[in-house]
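help with this.
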Amino acid sequence: MRDEVLFISDLHLTIERPEVTQKFLNFLVNRAPKAEALYILGDLFDTWIGDDDFSPPIKKVKHHLKALSQQGTKVFYIHGNRDFLIGQKFSQESGATLLDEYSLINLYGTPTLLTHGDLLCTDDIAYQAFREKSHSQEWQDNVLSKPLIFRMLFARWYRLRSFFHKRKKSQTIMDVNSDTVTSVMEKYQASRLIHGHTHREAIHDFLVQHKPVQRFVLSEWTKENASVLCFNRSGYTSETI
């Protein structure tokens, strides 16, 4: 009987990181089928230029996700800042259900808010402005209308640009804003928040409206380290992959 829910994010799968891809595929075959549900909270891929992209390791990842869902483990996905162009075709081919950027679930009796995490980093004003523009239907339709090879070249340029921009930003700016976290948890009446994006794996205990709440930050997956947050009726654990 499956009585467990798993959470992961920030794998940043790309052809340049085959070890992480293989680690994820092994996880889908050997570990994930034991769970009732798997939630992927964004940035599964390092870039996503459209559901018509066939470059490695996309096809293999979709195949394994589909097999997992067909075995009975429900797969849910929230867009990240790197793969926000994932669409319904990917959902159909992978068996993953796409969720809203903020999604509230009942996790063993506790109202739990899920998000990728970039929306919480409101001190990064330049990024938030780009995010608002790039999530408009007009911007996305314009990008997706371009030939695939053009989108591939644009993605490479964007990754390089993003790398150098991050080097200029302070770590504080790229972390979540505590007031934003409190405001969002109040809005959704959540007792628990789970997100990724910042790559700062941790568990934070604090108060919202004088009530104890928790914020779980998921780990980034690398060649050396990777973990999954596991919940069941008895509580939670962080499991090394």
Summary: Residues 148-168 form the longest helix (21 residues). The domain at 5-240 is CATH 3.60.21.10 (Purple Acid Phosphatase; chain A, domain 2).
